Structure formats: C-alpha cells, structure tokens
Amino acid sequence: MPAGTDGSKRVLAQDGGALPPTETTEVPNNAVESRASSEAAPVTNEVEVTPLHFLNETTRKFASWDVSVAQPRLEDYTYMWDGKQRAGKYFRCLLVFVNDNAQYCCAEIRKTRTSPADVFEKAMATYKEGIRFRMAKVELNVKAKPEYNNASCKVTVDLATTSMTKLLSTGADITPQPTITCVDCLNFHKVQAFDMTALVEDVSEKRHLKDKRYVRDIYLIDGTLSTTPKAKPDSGVLPPTEESELIRLKVQIFYNTVDSEDDPEFVKTLLDAKNTPQPFHFYGLTAQFKDKGYQIETMRNSYLITPATGPRIPSLLDRLSMGGVTPLIFRHRAVPGGIKPA
C-alpha cells in the first residue's frame, strides 16, 4: 500500500497502511470556539504554563494548555454485544504540548446516542494536522487504561466535552518526540504501550499467519547501552553479554498485504533502511507479557511509522557514534534470537 505524504513528513504505516485523508470541508465541532472574535492568542513566554504531564483529575479543572494536533484519524474496533461481534469506530489524535513536543497525550471522540450522525466528519474537519488549540476545562476518559496508551502523557482527553479554542497563530507542525529508549525497555514489569525513535538494524524474513496477514521481526538500536549483563528471558530485548553493550530491541511488526506476494510500501522502506543512518519514529508499540517473559510488538488497533524529525535526532546519532557503531558498515553474524556485530 503506498505511503502517505504530508509536506516534508511521510507517514509510512497505520497497521500497514497510510493515514486516511482528512476532510476538506470545514465543519466546526460543537466543543470548539470557531468564531474569530473568540479565538485565543497563543501563550507568551511571560505566562507561567502548566506542563502537560501535570494534566490529571485535579489540574484539568483550572489549568489550560496550548496544544497542536498530530496524527488525526478514524480507528476501527470490534466488540461483543448481545452475543455477537460488532464493529465500531472512533476519532483519535495526539495533542502535542507546544512548549515541549516530548509531552503529548491521546485525545478521542466516541459516538454516543446523542452524537450527531456526522460527528466523525466534523472531527476530521476540525482537528486537522498542525492546527493549534487552547485546551481548558478538560474532560478525561477515566475508563481508558494507561497501559494501552502509547503517548508520553498517560491520559486520554474527551474532545467532545472539553473546551477547545482555536489559536490565532498556528505555526509549523509539531512532531511528537518519543522519549523511551531501548535500554528503558529492560525495566518494563507489566503490559505497557509506548513510542520510540530508533534506527533499523535488521529485518527478518516475513512469516505467514493467515489469509493476507504477515509478521516480521525488526531489530532496532538507538545507541543506549546496557548497565548490566542480565536481561529478562524471552523478552524483546536481546540479552547483553557484558556491561556497556549496545541494546538491541526485537519488535514484531504485523501487517496485511494487498496480495499474498507483495509487501506494502512501508515494509519495503524499512528493508531499504537497514544499516543506514535513517531513524524512524515508531508510534504504537506494546510490551506484551508471555509465560516466560515479554515480547514487544505493534499495537493491535493501529501503529504509525514515519521518518524521524526533530531536535532529538542528532543526539541519537551521536550516541551511536560514541558507541562505535557506524550504521553504514554493519557486519553481522547469526546468534540465537537475533543479530550482533561481527
């Protein structure tokens, strides 16, 4: 499936496909102040702001945050009702704190009995990529479980009931910057969704699951080193054999093919990126615990992979360089469970 494009940013995959196009017709959301007279001025440096990671049941009542929309999309899901499996969908996006793009949270709109028939069309028209809002009187979805939330701030905003005022000045798009590293994955003790930025060291052959569903193992590095030779057995982290060894993360990527023979474009892009200094943002990974440990894989509903941009990329490449890794000249030898430099 062809990769999507959005200016200089390219979204490679949403569970193996490009993001759906946004609507072009402006339909104001009831929760958004759309009149020019009520549009807010952006927060200035002189105003003390509350960090987005302080958003909780207490601060939501009196604080406000300037945020930028990222990755707006409709997501499908299935559920059981009256003994039958049914299908549903909801609107979902990320809200990135304009003062710090490493702080971002999930936001959503779910259809209820009182929702208008075009609730999702209005959401896609209102919450477009890069549009900025002042968020106040925040309503949180308290039923959303943080362990299934891949954003850096583990809260989910209910956009249908939150006050969202469009800002006069929007500026450039803000890319969410994941902060989880490969070495951080050694410390997972429960199921946890997360995002990360890394280089692709290797990609396995594809394995057929059923119908047009396939899986590949990709091995990621970001220059972080182990502090102990121990690692959880059968985990997504390849066990280091000594201190200060480069951590390699094994991630299972699940995807559908258009036909049974040809991989989608995003898989081809990852294959081409092996051993090159091209980092990627991986949005929507999860550590799933099994009998003997855990494995890291793409989230079931959707995941996004895009070439990485932002101020953290130079430091990532510097870490790899200081660790003696030159991505362009990797040589590998096979070892049980993964790969290591020759």
What is the fold's blueprint, element by element?
Elements: E1 13-14, E2 32-33, E3 64-81, E4 84-97, E5 104-109, H1 119-126, E6 132-136, E7 153-158, E8 163-166, E9 192-203, E10 207-210, E11 213-221, E12 249-256, H2 265-272, E13 279-289, E14 294-298, E15 304-307, H3 313-322, E16 332-335, E17 338-341
Which stretches are low in confidence, meaning pLDDT under 50 for 5 or more residues running? 1-11, 16-41, 231-235, 326-342
Strand content: 25-35%
CATH superfamily of the largest domain: Nucleic acid-binding proteins
The sequence of SSEs as H and E is EEEEEHEEEEEEEHEEEHEE
Q: Write down the overall geometry.
A: globular
Strand order in space, largest sheet? 2-8-6-3-4-5-7
- Major sheet description: 7 strands, mixed
Level-1 CATH class name of the largest domain = Mainly Beta
Structure notes:
This protein is mostly beta strands and 342 residues long. The chain has 2 domains: 33-166, Nucleic acid-binding proteins (OB fold (Dihydrolipoamide Acetyltransferase, E2P)); 183-341, OB fold (Dihydrolipoamide Acetyltransferase, E2P), CATH 2.40.50. 8% of the residues lie in helices and 35% in strands. The chain has 3 helices and 17 strands. The chain has helices at 119-126, 265-272, 313-322, and strands spanning 13-14, 32-33, 64-81, 84-97, 104-109, 132-136, 153-158, 163-166, 192-203, 207-210, 213-221, 249-256, 279-289, 294-298, 304-307, 332-335, 338-341. It has a 7-stranded mixed sheet with strand order 2-8-6-3-4-5-7, with helices on one face. A 5-stranded mixed β-barrel has the order 9-11-12-14-13. A two-stranded antiparallel sheet has the order 16-17. It is globular, with a radius of gyration of 21 Å. It starts with 12 loop residues before the first strand and ends with a strand.
